[in-house]
Structure prediction request, 225 residues.
Amino acid sequence: LAKTTQPISMDSYEGQEVNITCSHNNIATNDYITWYQQFPSQGPRFIIQGYKTKVTNEVASLFIPADRKSSTLSLPRVSLSDTAVYYCLAPLYNQGGKLIFGQGTELSVKP
Amino acid sequence: EAGVAQSPRYKIIEKRQSVAFWCNPISGHATLYWYQQILGQGPKLLIQFQNNGVVDDSQLPKDRFSAERLKGVDSTLKIQPAKLEDSAVYLCASSLDTRSYEQYFGPGTRLTVT
Prediction:
């Protein structure tokens, strides 16, 4: 399973775009990059996943360069309610969807 | 669509006592997971079921933890006897199958062992 590294914490202000970068140097050919969001006192919630280039949904965008050794989660125009911990994971395709959570990035959005 | 249900939401016990947690996954989800989340850390997978069979229990402390999913639907996780270091949030999650990276988590059970 690819080891992922991401910043422990980030601060932002309402209305700004937030980019959280995750490195996964030893990601395998079949690994997808998956991001989860966790609010206090709740279980994690799936946000987005991608394999290469760019993926966008109603919540976020995920940018993955050609070498796939890193990925960036982009949250457009954050609000106070985006304050949460964000986890980057690279589950191995043939490991049955097994998720290995790191410490995550604690995002704090201020007014 | 109903989400993953867990009970109880909170539990306080003394060390050496036993405790059980219950989880009802989303209807139709074949795969069920139990995670342990210690304060300040990411969730750690304890056990994964596919229907009523165990897929992965490599990180389950089998001397004190046990889990079952007898009918392939709901599941229970038991700790006997509990230790102080078992204080954590126990999260249950489910997914359509073992190939899905999109897992749906319940609200968790916060266990405090005194």
